[in-house]
Write a structure and sequence with these properties.
Elements (H helix, E strand, L loop, with lengths): L1 H5 L1 H21 L2 H5 L7 H19 L5 H23 L7 H24 L3 H12 L9 H16 L3 H5 L12
Helix pairs in contact: 2-4, 4-5, 4-6, 4-8, 5-6, 6-7, 7-8
């Protein structure tokens, strides 16, 4: 028991978690999203892209069992810890953090439900509409939404082709977004 909690296995699991989370973050920070596809390069815009990539990771592991299920939960926990840390870095105090975390969690799960539904139905228009509604709520029309929807659908397919064993070992490969 102590070996598992405090020994090498715990450190190996932490290394896997950190490696996967870093890969998810790197995918969400692809420059093309902000420079070419007009995603706002703001804390909320970055939250949207990180949420989207976390959704894609979770979507890939859905239906898996054992270590993959545990890993999916650990990565969600890591995501929300990172979001909380970011709020604190933005100057939100101890009193305001729980309220904002509750709101951001609700936003995350609402978005994932919309994205999941559109992906399951293979409905690119619905996916583009959900992305536009969430990523660019300030814009009447967001011309790049179909590009992001195509990226999401392609990424979902590519992630589905990756073996769960590889992901559980710490490697997930997100495709690079391509210019229009």
């Amino acid at each position: 028991m102590f070996q598992r909690l405090f020994g090498r296995e715990r450190h190996a699991n932490r290394a896997i978690t950190e490696a996967l989370y870093a890969q998810i973050v790197a995918a969400a920070r692809q420059t093309i999203f902000y420079s070419d596809w007009n995603v706002p390069d703001t804390p909320l815009g970055r939250f949207e892209m990180l949420s989207l990539h976390m959704f894609l990771f979770q979507h890939r592991l859905r239906g898996e069992s054992g270590a993959a299920t545990e890993l999916a939960q650990v990565l969600i926990d890591e995501f929300f810890l990172d979001v909380e840390h970011s709020l604190r870095e933005l100057g939100i105090g101890d009193v305001g953090v729980p309220k904002r975390m509750k709101k951001l969690a609700k936003m995350f799960y609402g978005r994932t439900a919309a994205y999941d539904d559109a992906l399951e139905r293979d409905d690119r228009e619905a996916l583009a509409a959900a992305l536009a509604r969430n990523v660019r709520p300030d814009a009447d029309a967001w011309a790049q939404a179909p590009l992001l929807a195509a990226y999401v659908a392609d990424t979902s397919r590519q992630l589905a082709a990756q073996p769960a064993g590889s992901i559980v070992s710490g490697t997930v490969v997100f495709p690079l977004a391509k210019p229009a």
